[in-house]
Every structure is written in C-alpha cells, then in structure tokens.
Design goal:
The chain is mainly alpha-helical. It folds into 4 domains: about 35-230, Lysozyme, CATH 1.10.530.10; about 240-320, no CATH class; about 325-390, LysM domain (Membrane-bound Lytic Murein Transglycosylase D, Chain A, Roll), CATH 3.10.350.10; about 405-455, Roll (Membrane-bound Lytic Murein Transglycosylase D, Chain A), CATH 3.10.350. It contains 21 helices and 11 strands. It has helices spanning about 1-15, 40-50, 60-70, 70-95, 105-110, 130-135, 150-170, 170-180, 180-190, 200, 205-225, 255-260, 265-270, 295-300, 300-310, 315-320, 345-350, 355-360, 395-400, 420-430, 435-440, and strands at about 20, 30, 240-245, 250, 280, 285-290, 330-335, 375-380, 405-410, 410-415, 450-455. The strands form 5 sheets. Strands 9-10-11 form a 3-stranded antiparallel sheet. Strands 1-2 form a two-stranded antiparallel ribbon.
C-alpha cells in the first residue's frame, strides 16, 4: 500500500512538465522538468554509489521528486551556495580519510546556512547542539558561537562522524546516529531483534530519522545528476580570497570595515561565528578572516585601525547582553514547547537569556513548567547588514556616563547593576562563575546592584 502511494505521488508530480515564470515586458521563461522514471533513477544510483550505500526505494524516489520538482527553488538556492562550502568540506573529509559524499550531509542538516538554528537549538552548517559541540571543542557564546564557524564546525563534524562509524561499522547507521544520537540507534537495533542494517531497523527509529537517510541518498543522487533534472548553471556565490589578522581586544567589525573601505557583508560572511558584529572585551588571539586585498593596508595602519575599532558600540552591546529582565528591545520572538526534562535554567542557557527573562515574558512566578507548555522567548538575531539597527540601543544616560569596569590596585573591578547575575558577568568578562566566587569570597550566587566585584585575571 505504501509503495502504491509513492508511485501515485511520483506519477502526479511527473505530469507537471513545465513551470512558466512570467517577467514584465519579457517572454515567459520555461523551466522544463524532465520526466525521470523510477528505473532510470535506480540505474543512475548504482553508478554513483561509493563507500556509503545508496539503497534506492520508493521512499528515496519521493525525496528525489520533492527536491527536483516540488521544491526546485530550494534546490537552486543550495546550488548557488555550494561553492562557498564544498571546498571546505572536501578538504576536511580528505584530511580525515572520510568518504567525499559526506559533504552532501550538510545540505540535509542546514541547507548550507552557517547561521541556521533549529527548534532544538542545533546550530550551524552541521547542526551541533551545545553539549555535542563542546565535546568536539566548539564553544557557544553570546558574542561568538564556534558552531557557526564553517572550518571549525566541519572539522568537528568529521571527527564526530568518524567516531559514529567506529561505533556502528555502518555508514547508514552512523548517519542515523548523527541525526538522533547513538542511544536511539542502539535502542532501534535491540527492538528489531539486533538487526544491523538501516532498512531493517527503519520502523524502530524516530520519525525524523526515517526521513533523514533517504533525504541524504536523494540529495547525493541529485547533485551528481543536476543536468538530467534540468538545473541550469546558477549564478553561484563564491567566498572572497581571504587572509587573517590576529585580534586580542574588543573589535567592532562595521567600524573596521568602514575604515578600510571593505564590504561589511564580506567580513561577516567570512566570520559567521561572530554573532553580534564585534569581538568582546577579553578576546585573545582571535584569527579574524578579512579579504586578502586589504591585508597590506591593515598591516600598515594596524595601530590606528585597532584603536578606532575598539571605541565603537561596546556599551551598546554590553547593554543588550545585560538589559533589564523581561526587556524585548532589539529582539525577535520565538515560541518554545517544553519537553520532558526541561527546566527554566536549561532553557535559559540554551537561548542565552536569563531565568528572570523567561519568568517575565511568560508571567511565571516560581519555577514550575509543564510538558507541552509554550514559552515565549525573545532572542537577539545574529548581526548583519539588515539587523544592525537593532544593536544601536538608545542607552540610558546613567549607562552612557558610567564606566562599570575600572582598574584599582592592579585588579579589574566590576560594579554590579540591576539585572546582572554571576552568569552574565562571567560571560561578559570571559571567566567562570566559580572563579568569580573564589576571587570575591562569595558563599552563594547572590549579588546586589552597586556591589563591587573583582574580575579574576586571565
């Protein structure tokens, strides 16, 4: 019955021979969609199969039709971006001795978007959740999230995939585990009577994972046969040639780009892990990627450029990071559905907000939340040319005129303000809660506005 269903869907989709896109004062542009039969696709699939099995069936065929017929514009969008990232993937996969076709996995994960964030707060091209990212050396943060770094995240993904393959000795099961975790794959193996093939344990896997591997197979096939599905040459995006400069200070990217007459979007595209348009105070030896053609000018005028970039936007960003509990200024709303095991603290850490914010936004008095409850969360979007106006905060006069971090007797002293917590202060000053408590002989996490705290030396 399922096979008949997919056969009917395939037939109905294939009868749509072409789509006409009309442009004003121009002839209609015809996007011809070839009729590729099941048997033709199956034959081509066998020809491209490498180290990773590309098992073909009606489920895979349905995804081939989806990406090549029903959602052609999505596929075109990926084709335009592939040269931005495929060279990075190919180099890393070769370095780790992994199959080259794994480069297509990022399409399934993120659609080749380095700033992609899922509902489960998985981030980046390879969609690392916070805990798995930390296992492979990717540090999340309010200013910088290394899961969004195409180079670092790709290297981490290669190491993770290599570990999963060692665990299951099967690329199909390794891919399934990448999606739902090795625990769920082991559970499916047990429930299936200890079968060891993906399609043998298929019905025991989570629903999303049942679609995950077929999508990978469909994408792998399609990107090897784009011409046979009439995907014309697209205007592909390319990354500019780049070099690096080392930065160890607060550094405002727009100010820097304006001084050297560089395109801000190019610098942001080269450094997508910089979420707020600036490197924070306390940065040490950050390798900032810049267009290669401006490197000589930057080196020649380094002192002036760095000094100017250190003086813009610092208070505004610090205010956005710490503003009063419940503030929605400069933020966009998302809705989170509470899952089993969730508490306010873990949700707050996941979205880089405070527990007090969650309580205020959702009118929660205590800490009780229930499974299925919907929580409003206001997050600050990633810095870009389109969102940078949200960062131009109209600071209260008291904030503008007060320096909160001073040096006294060789120590940095921080003056606590309303809305501060040890967690927010530790993140802002690149330290830990434990070090703050030790340096200030604090027995608890309670602090008060006006209190002076010693910031531990790096």
């Amino acid at each position: 019955m399922i096979s008949d269903f997919f056969r009917k869907i395939t037939f109905l989709l294939s009868i749509s021979i072409s789509i006409c896109v009309w442009a004003q004062d121009e002839e209609p542009i015809v996007d011809f969609i070839p009729d590729n039969t099941y048997d033709e696709v199956a034959d081509r699939m066998q020809c491209i199969e490498g180290e990773i099995p590309l098992n073909f069936n009606q489920r895979v065929m349905a995804f081939v039709d989806y990406f090549s017929i029903r959602n052609r514009e999505y596929t075109r969008d990926i084709i335009r971006r592939k040269e931005l990232f495929f060279p990075i993937f190919e180099e890393a996969l070769a370095k780790h001795g992994l199959p080259d076709e794994l480069k297509y996995l990022s399409i399934v994960e993120s659609g080749l978007r380095p700033n992609a964030i899922s509902r489960a707060n998985a981030v980046g091209l390879w969609q690392f959740i916070s805990s798995t990212g930390k296992m492979y050396g990717l540090r999340p943060g309010w200013y910088i999230d290394e899961r969004m770094d195409p180079y670092e995240a790709t290297d981490a993904a290669c190491r993770h995939l290599k570990d999963l393959y060692r665990m299951f000795d099967s690329w199909e099961l390794a891919l399934a585990a990448y999606n739902c975790g090795p625990g769920n794959v082991r559970k499916a193996i047990r429930r299936s009577g200890y079968k060891r093939e993906f399609w043998e344990i298929y019905r025991y896997l989570p629903r999303e994972t049942r679609s995950y591997v077929p999508q990978f197979v469909a994408i792998t096939y399609l990107f090897n046969h784009l011409d046979l599905h009439n995907f014309q040459e697209e205007a592909e995006e390319f990354s500019p040639q780049w070099d690096t400069i080392m930065v160890s200070q607060y550094f405002h990217l727009e100010t820097f780009s304006n001084q050297v007459d560089a395109c801000l979007d190019d610098i942001l595209k080269l450094n997508p892990q910089i979420k707020r348009g600036a490197l924070p105070e306390g940065t040490r030896d950050f390798a900032l990627r810049i267009p290669e053609d401006i490197k000589a000018e930057v080196v020649a005028n380094r002192a002036h450029l760095y000094d100017t970039a250190s003086k813009v936007g610092k208070k505004e960003l610090q205010y956005l990071a710490r503003n009063s509990p419940g503030s929605t200024y400069g933020r966009k709303k998302l809705v989170y559905r509470v899952r089993s095991g969730d508490v306010l603290g873990t949700i707050a850490r996941k979205y880089h907000v405070r527990v007090s914010d969650l309580r205020s936004w959702n009118r929660i008095r205590g800490s009780m939340i229930r499974i299925g409850q919907r929580l409003n969360i206001w997050v600050l979007p990633t810095y870009s040319e389109q969102t940078k106006k949200l960062y131009a905060v109209d600071l209260p006069e008291a904030v503008k005129n007060e320096d909160k971090l001073v040096v006294k007797d060789g120590q940095q002293i921080y003056k606590v303000r309303s809305g501060d917590s040890l967690w927010s202060i530790s993140k802002e000053n690149n330290t830990t809660i434990e070090k703050l408590k030790t340096a200030n002989k604090l027995a608890s996490n309670t602090i008060k506005p006006g209190q002076s705290l010693v910031i531990p030396l790096k």
